[in-house]
Amino acid sequence: MSATDDLSGYLIAPDPSARRLTRAVRGVDHEGRESEIAVVEERPLTIFLNGQEIVTAMTIGDYPEYLALGFLRNQGMLQDGEAIKGVDYDDDLETVVVRTDGQTSYEEKLKKKTRTSGCAVGTVFGDMMEGLEGVRLPEVQVRTSDLYALAHRINQTPSLYLQAGAIHGTVLCKGAQPLVYMEDVGRHNAVDKIAGWMLSEGAEAADKMLYTTGRLTSEMVIKTAMMGIPVLASRSGFTAWGVEIAQQVGLTLIGRMRGKRFMCLSGEERLLRDADPAAVPEEARKSGRKGAQG
Amino acid sequence: MSATDDLSGYLIAPDPSARRLTRAVRGVDHEGRESEIAVVEERPLTIFLNGQEIVTAMTIGDYPEYLALGFLRNQGMLQDGEAIKGVDYDDDLETVVVRTDGQTSYEEKLKKKTRTSGCAVGTVFGDMMEGLEGVRLPEVQVRTSDLYALAHRINQTPSLYLQAGAIHGTVLCKGAQPLVYMEDVGRHNAVDKIAGWMLSEGAEAADKMLYTTGRLTSEMVIKTAMMGIPVLASRSGFTAWGVEIAQQVGLTLIGRMRGKRFMCLSGEERLLRDADPAAVPEEARKSGRKGAQG
Hints:
six-stranded mixed sheet; disordered C terminus; Cytidine Deaminase, domain 2; 2 domains; 294 residues; 28% strand; homodimer; Ubiquitin-like (UB roll); alpha/beta; four-stranded mixed sheet; 8 helices
């Protein structure tokens, strides 16, 4: 399974040759041989909501506007229907400012919280869980033939993941078609960039699926649910709480998806098993990705 | 390479059978077979510094006191020589309060920052880089025979990593001896728990090495340098900025260490190549760990 250049159907595909995303680093291997290795970049990006500094994220640096929008949306700091006046990225200052019409409810809350406890860092997690209350995802059938086709296609798509490693990818898909493939050093940045793209495009969520190379932790499951996407699949493992939340919101959750193998942790009744696993080839060892753990 | 029960020389080793760390989760595989899988837990833990709420971390839940101490230390919120009066963990409230004699300089700074910008979230990263200024690690030789021996020994040690996956491990080592092996859902929690242990025990740093399963990003390199440990090795990849910071502070950095292979990115001149790579066996496929990516 080697990378092909067939990018048909993609709205956004990775661009592993982009100049700013990797740097040549000199290394010496176990036999003392010197070599130059293409290594992913990592840059700070400070996100502001109106006049409020929110967080500094470490990112490869592509799509800063989508990252900022998606981060604020997934943290519950931007609500549905909040009118976004502008998203301004400053390359030199390494900042993105998201501007809304008037103050957001989050800024109001932050002020109150800051007055009472002097700090707002701890609120983020509570806010995310709060945003999840009452969420029930639409019940959609998932064809295992689509799952296999997607995993195969995504593994063959040229990416920083295949070329340089030490990075995570998240792909927004519809049926057997990958649509938007984002990568980043943090697995959360990749999913936030997808959320930012969806918000900008007003994309429908109910007919989509999310595929990620990262683990299915509580935060990843919460983000997918907040985005309204009913299916989440990964080649990696999962945590107990991730599984519990998926069951609670009706998210179809599939982990350890490699070659013909997968494990369905939630939504088994929505799987349409229309593919014969015996006909699916084992994953070639080389698509086990380069130092991508972490 | 299967797990052995030889824990000689370890001061703290993983306890994969501990009741609270994993939960049995029901899954259905690609062939429709049901099974019960041991899956790692993930719990929120809110860390306070005196009266100040600092952060809510997601953790497997062991060693909460070390996690809190190490987190505060690695973020530069607790300085060297700050007198720690107590570390109180409350299991029901899922909180740890670290108490110092009098207010810390961080609390002072936080108040000022909160007054001026209304929020302190964004300061954390800046503080970490600030703490690094002028840091120059001691120059120590690293034997490749020790590197190989450590990787082999750590791979054979029973762990949540081998048993359940979806988790990261960090091991404090001296020569060829692993001493303290911590695991957690977040790779940063594992290294923070090591930092907390070192702070509690007043452990020497200059003669130690850190081995991690996670990627060598800027934050991981900064934390190791802040802890005063001169060598960092990983089975995973690295980022350009991680390599740059390692060179800047004189940290010996080794990545992609699997079987006989490794790549030295910084401190090549301090490697003592006393092992013949040809004599080191390739890593058995099964020690490629269960869904640990992420």
